């Protein structure tokens, strides 16, 4: 299948920060994807929390399974829109590499610890992982990914951090946050695929955990409509099959909505190429109706799952672990590996080390350094 003229073409990539000879059998975006899959940070995602901590159940999503689901949804949509599937997959697989242990709770705690030292942003950390913190090649630090992959990884960025990136890399991946332009369509698509994936799997995990129920989800129009349709088509359906069939239909409806709405936006904007996309308004989007329904679902999940007392209690415990680790390593850098302990930017070195931890390693280190037992 040929790429659309506004898709990202690896033959026209803005390139890598360190020039390399082309690979004989792979284009630049395929090569990026392969480097990400073989990275240490990618493997760690299997033991990093999505919503429920890793020890709370074997079937709950982790950052790894979430990333795979984003990649699957993203490739399906990209294929229909004639965008670059390999670039979408690379961005999707790398977008959470910078997440801390314990999900957003760990991120918030580490950000608080780093407030006097530039703060902590998980999207920026994902970029730092692929630019600096992976040490796999003799010629450079990081994975030396292409501009387009790095652009997609940096989903959000504060103005201050964007200006720092721009100063170090003029015209690079920080520029769009300074001049308010857009990333390429593949990056825009990954942002939306991320939202679709986590809304769907947080419903699944929330029901599995017992913290929310199918009956309570009846408040959500997007869920309830597809549940009623599933039961009308399969009158004897019961148990978890009802949940799975409802989520499947929800996912399909959202994917088809994105394809249709994006086609309409592309037809109206008529971008000539990928650079014209960057100068346009966002072009990968939901219809107005689906955007409203997705927002209502997110509000439901925030109210009933993310702020559930059990989740909040576990999050507070996790934040205590991160704070204790930060203080312990700051006081005794020799407790970290030498590559982190010898750094001049001590606070950032501690943050980098903690951010790279899995949930279970962070707990083991907490118990070792404090002598206190983690009691979930």
From TrEMBL:
It comes from the Bacteria. InterPro entries: dGTPase (IPR006261), dGTPase-like (IPR050135), dNTPase_2 (IPR023023), HD/PDEase_dom (IPR003607), HD_domain (IPR006674), PHydrolase_assoc_dom (IPR026875). Keywords: Hydrolase. Residues 63-199 form the HD domain. The keyword Hydrolase applies. It holds the Pfam family HD_assoc. Residues 1-32 are annotated as: Disordered. The keyword Transmembrane helix does not apply. PANTHER family: DEOXYGUANOSINETRIPHOSPHATE TRIPHOSPHOHYDROLASE-LIKE PROTEIN, DEOXYNUCLEOSIDE TRIPHOSPHATE TRIPHOSPHOHYDROLASE. Belongs to the dGTPase family. Type 2 subfamily. This is Deoxyguanosinetriphosphate triphosphohydrolase-like protein. It comes from Variovorax ginsengisoli.
